[in-house]
Amino acid sequence: MNIIIYSLSTDLSATKLQQKASIQLNKKTVEDMMLCSTDKLLLSIFEQKKVTLVEMGSGEVLSEIALQDNPRLMCMVATHLAATTLGKRGIQFIQINGSTLKEKSMLNLDIDVYGVSAHNDNLVVSHDPPGLQIISRDGAVIHKLDNTTAGREVFKSPRWIATTSDSIYVTDWGTHQITRLDSSLTILQTFTGPLLQFPCGIIPLNRYQLLVCSRDNNSIVQIRPSTNSMTSLLEKQHGIESPHSLCFCKVQKKLYVAPKRDKVLVYQML
Q1: Helix, strand, coil distribution of the chain in percent, nearest 5
Q2: What is the domain count for the chain?
Q3: Cα–Cα distance between 123 and 141 in angstroms, integer?
Q4: Rounded CA gap, 251 and 52, in Å?
Q5: Does 139 map to a domain?
Q6: 102 by DSSP, 3-state: which?
């Protein structure tokens, strides 16, 4: 689902992104954000223990539900089904029926789960103690990688996850790097450097380019895995300040960036 929405053939570094009017969220603090259709955003509001559905054009709240715990990160599992992590409580599935949200099943896990992404009909989760797991939708562990199984320190604070058809990417606050893995959690590549400072939200635009929020650099960074290169795409002078999550709508040709405060920044691709 995520790959279909984000898929873009154009290299964003070769285009101009023009800032448009922001979406105002009435002091909601956004932990994570994603597209659930071409005109609706799903937001996890950590402090209020809520997940909120917002109309992108007006910022109108269409629906919201209160959860058992503070929602962290999210992903689309199917066309009308989302998932959000709830720390030690596990993963909450949420049904999206048009403009209405409804709680579905709860998946209890024995880890403190942070990030989640759908991959090949399974889920990839990041967690504390620091590690990464691929699990089935009923919680069965298929693959796992942590500092114990690897016999060395692989992760310190793994957080956001992005997936493509053949790769898994995870950001790590403790190491300020991004790790690329295959579907067996074998490490293929790492990205690190001065452009990445507390990497947060990450999305694939296609197999050849990703975007990541570099929170403490106040920038949006483009990564090209094929050349192991990084480019700063948007910075503080473009309105970026402590970016936390982002999403891209191919239909609208717009990039949405949440700075973890009461608005979502909007950039039009020209």
Answers
A1: 10, 55, 35
A2: 1
A3: 10
A4: 22
A5: yes
A6: strand
Q: Looking at this protein, which amino acid is placed at residue 13?
A: S
- Sign, Cα dihedral of 178, 181, 183, 185: negative
Q: Which of these, 115, 156, 130, lies nearest to 244 by C-alpha position?
A: 115
Q: What's the CATH code of the domain at 205?
A: 2.120.10.30
DSSP 87: B
User: H or E segment at 3?
Assistant: helix 2-6
With CA atoms as reference, report the closest residue to 233 among 249, 210, 252, 253.
210
Helix (H) or strand (E) segment spanning residue 53: strand 50-55
Question: What is the DSSP pairing of strand 91-97 with strand 158-163?
Answer: unpaired
Q: Is residue 17 part of a domain?
A: no
Q: Within a domain: residue 15? A: no
Residue 13 belongs to a domain? no
Q: What count of other Cβ atoms lies within 10 Å of the Cβ of residue 1?
A: 17
Tens digit of each residue's pLDDT, the chain (270 residues): 333 345 566 788 788 999 999 998 887 889 999 998 889 999 999 999 999 999 988 889 999 999 999 999 999 999 899 999 999 999 999 999 999 999 999 999 999 999 999 998 999 999 999 999 999 999 999 999 999 888 899 999 999 999 998 899 999 999 999 999 999 999 999 999 999 999 999 999 888 899 999 999 999 999 999 999 999 999 999 999 999 999 999 889 999 999 977 899 999 998
Q: Check: CB of residue 68 under 8 Å from CB of residue 89.
A: yes
* Edge-to-edge order in the sheet of strand 177-181: 158-163, 168-172, 177-181, 187-192
How many residues are there in the chain?
Answer: 270
Domain range for 102 is 2-8+24-269
Residue type, 105: S
Beta strands 263-269 and 91-97, pairing class: unpaired
